[in-house]
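In practice, a research group might receive sequence data for several interacting partners and want a quick structural hypothesis before committing to experiments. The following worked case mirrors that situation: the sequences arrive first, and a predicted assembly follows.
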Amino acid sequence: DQQVKQNSPSLSVQEGRISILNCDYTNSMFDYFLWYKKYPAEGPTFLISISSIKDKNEDGRFTVFLNKSAKHLSLHIVPSQPGDSAVYFCAASEGPQGGSEKLVFGKGTKLTVNP
Amino acid sequence: NAGVTQTPKFRILKIGQSMTLQCTQDMNHNYMYWYRQDPGMGLKLIYYSVGAGITDKGEVPNGYNVSRSTTEDFPLRLELAAPSQTSVYFCASRSQGNTGELFFGEGSRLTVL
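A structural hypothesis for the assembly, expressed as tokens:
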């Protein structure tokens, strides 16, 4: 039973346009959400996070939106750059301020940004 | 600053063999994790540790063992390797109080034939 779902295995966008990656979750106890980026042959790297007390968090070109009622979050990348081409994982955790030892990951979405 | 270092990067095992994946971090993090990633799948937690001498099972612990004798090291032991353990293994760590931001190693690709 997947608690964190990324239903789009891949996404292709043109350089300079917006990339929107989506993530749905089923566990209502999740209260902290993170996005990781992974390049081939490397480990995932932390990108951005959001607490359930917020509905938006922005860091440069990256913005994460959280819709708790829909159990949905999305990552927006504006403008998209070829270097953003990677696999993006959505992750979630229970517990106060994400302090749970266990992160649950989605299957990932492979983003390709075409020059 | 090395961060999280995993060895080996690649390994081929025969069914029934055993091996240890090494993981070392130099950030003085209390929390350490082992994940596996199968093709087209997300990362699944095998074991984790909240400090030296303390370990606990994750989602998929069967066929694996861990130990945490020091803050820096968190080796993962595979006993009696099986083809189902063919995967990419990632070690990760985080500091206490850090809200879920994990630092990952580069991964160890294991093939069991």
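Before designing any experiment, note the following. The mean pLDDT of chain A is 92. The interface with chain B takes residues 4, 6, 9, 32, 34, 36, 41-46, 49, 51, 89, 91, 93, 97-103, 105-108 of chain A (CB under 8 Å).
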